[in-house]
Design a protein that fits this description.
The strands form 2 sheets. The chain has a 10-stranded parallel β-sheet. A 5-stranded mixed β-sheet has the order 11-14-12-13-15, sandwiched between helices. It is an alpha/beta fold. Helix content is 38%, strand content 10%. Helix 3 runs antiparallel to helix 5, helix 9 runs parallel beside helix 10 and helix 12 packs parallel to helix 13. The chain has a domain of 110 residues.
Amino acid sequence: MGDFWDSIATAHRVDDGDASGRPVLTPDPLESEPESDEEDRTDGIFSPQFVQSTGVHVYMKWCRDQNVVPVQQFISMLDHEVVSLKHRGVGAAGGKAIFECLRHNKHIQALDMEDNQLGLNVDVEAGALEHIAAAIRDNSVLTNLDLSYNNFAGRGCARIALALESNSRIREVSLRGNNMGDMGARALQCNINDKNKLAKIDVSDNGIGESGGMDLGALIANAKTLKQADFSWNAVGIRGTAAIAESLKTASALVRLNLAWNGLGDRGAEHIGLALKENQQLQFLDVSSNRISFEGAKSIADGLRENQTLRSLQLNGNPIGDHGVVTIIEAVGEQYSVRDLGLQDCSTFKSGDGIFDPRNPTGHYSLQLTDAFDVECFDKMRELDRMDEASGMDNFINLKVDGAELTFGEGQDIQGWKAPPEAQMITFDYVATKKVPKEAKAQREEVFASFRKELSNPALSEETKLLMLRSAATTHYWSAAQMRQLIVLITFQRRVDAVVMLFRRVVDLDHFYSEVWTLLKKSEQAVCRRRLGECLKRLLAEHEPQMDEHEPPAQEQHRTSTVVFMTEVEGGEGAAADDGGDAQQAPMA
């Protein structure tokens, strides 16, 4: 048996004269580390410096005592600052050797032990996890520790939390997926306070309920240095959310909070909205998949209108509907702080219909005139149109009321029109004529690359991709070259929708023709001309010959029209007629 242990040591020898004191490695075949040159190998032993600073002899002795095979990768990295041993199947016995070694190691600052069954079938009350606790207490250099998915359960997590109480060096700790429950959350709340220097904690996927959620709220309040907290995939519910939100109001350090998959509901969203009104530190908030509906979206939107620090808001997977999406987008547009808005799987965004964004209203709309919310959006667009009169171009084009084309008498427009009482739906294309501000800049390339990669996911539906574009267009501008890269990720059937949506978010429209227009097929170009109207016509004028204005396109002929005259007549009567005598009666504005 002695030959076996000698062979392990021989595989990691270092000559005493090696100035670096680093071991010569026999690389683990599962790792991608480069193999050392043969001429660097010697027949010496571990250098004194290596032995003294790494605890390698302690590790070898404990492996022998526990009758476990040493992890050669661990030996080879004992003088590294970052060591990853995730998914190695170390087990409880192997873990003892590693953490006893860690008590003496002077190099390892970050250790990842995810998924190693360190707490499987051990008696915590009998001190089975004392080796981990001792390493946390005694190690003088460790700052990052990942113990995710190790079957510690509530008692094991409580033991680790107790050890963390006396540690002022560890900055980041992850106990994700250990089934700690409310017991573990309670222990963390009791042992982590302003004496610690903890900046990041991850207790996601731990079966924490409402009681534990209340303890997590207290944890935020107690840990004054905590900057990032991941509480996702638990069940903190309404009471837990209320406690977390209350602490969030006064949290002076927390910048990232993940509460996804926690059953917040609308009442929990209401608490979050109230917290956003007072918090002036948080930059990232994820409340995805929390059964939040339109009412909850309104609460969060109310909070956004008074918050000036939030940069990223993720609402993905909440059934807030089209109205909720519009409400959130409008709130984001009012404050200008949020730069990353996640609204995937929140809406029934289909058929190319636009979701109203006051900062980028260009798009196609189908609005129910019997729906108060849709009427409100319509009125807001009419107000934008009124403010844009100086452009001399129509913002509302291709109007139809219940399928019949809507036109107006000479000198009159949408401003004086009132919907006929019997009308159900109005459809139109709205084209903003306001140009991109001179100070606007295209999205930074590194951010754009990340967004483009996300958008290129083949699992995403076209509706989801268009909604992602709409959300991004609320806060970002692009160059024409970037726009082209986004357009090609949309299928032929929906590409025009993307072009129209991004048309007024391009900072260099003089390159639109070469980068985007030439990419489109003739049929797509024809639809773009119709949907973007005079704005596009003027832009293309220098590149293409003028169309004969007296020859209407084939698809524009033989339409049913509704011509509306706005002239007020004493007695409240108004008339509507067209040249063919087929006009429908419309009320006077």
